[in-house]
Amino acid sequence: MNFIRNARLTSISANPVKHLRLMSQLGDLGSGAGKGGGGGGSIREAGGAFGKAEAAKEEEYFYRKQREQLSKLKDDLKDEISFHEEQIKRHQEAINRHQQRVTDIDKKE
Fold first, then answer.
1. CA dihedral 73, 75, 77, 80 (to 10 degrees)
2. Does 32 score more than 60 pLDDT?
3. Distance between CA atoms of 33 and 21, rounded to whole angstroms?
4. Cα 70 vs. chain centroid, distance in angstroms?
5. Contact call for residues 40 and 34 (beta carbons, < 8 A)
C-alpha cells in the first residue's frame, strides 16, 4: 500500500504541468469528438476553425487555472515555512531559558 501511495505522490508531484498537458491532448484538439466517445460540445464536435478556437480557449482557461492553483500552493507553503521558522525561534528561546536555569541552579550548588 505504501508503495502505491508513494508512487502516486511521486508521479503527481514530479511535474504537474506536464501531466495535465498530456491528459488534455487525447487527439488533435478541436478536430471533432474525442477518442473517448464523448463529445466536447456542439462546436468542438463540428471541428474546423471554430472547434480549434474553442479547444484553444479551453486549454488557455485550464492553463491559467492551473497557474493560479500553483501560485496559491506556493503562497501557502511560504506561509507554512514562516510559521515553522517562528516556532523554531520560540523553541530555541525556550531551550536557552531552560539551559540558563540549569546553569543558575548549578552555580547555587
1. -140
2. no
3. 18
4. 5
5. yes
Which amino acid type is present at position 38? G
Compute how many other C-beta atoms are within 10 angstroms of the C-beta atom of residue 55: 21
Judged by DSSP in three states, 77 sits in helix
Lowest-pLDDT range, 6-10, 56-60, 78-82, 93-97?
Answer: 6-10
Q: For the segment 47-74, what is each residue's pLDDT rounded down to a tens digit?
A: 678 878 888 999 999 999 999 999 999 9
Measured between alpha carbons, how far is 14 from 16 in angstroms, rounded to an integer? 6
Residue type, 82: S
Neighbouring residues of 20: CB distance < 8 A, sequence distance ≥ 6: 62, 66
CB-based burial label for 3 (10 Å; 0-12, 13-18, 19+): exposed
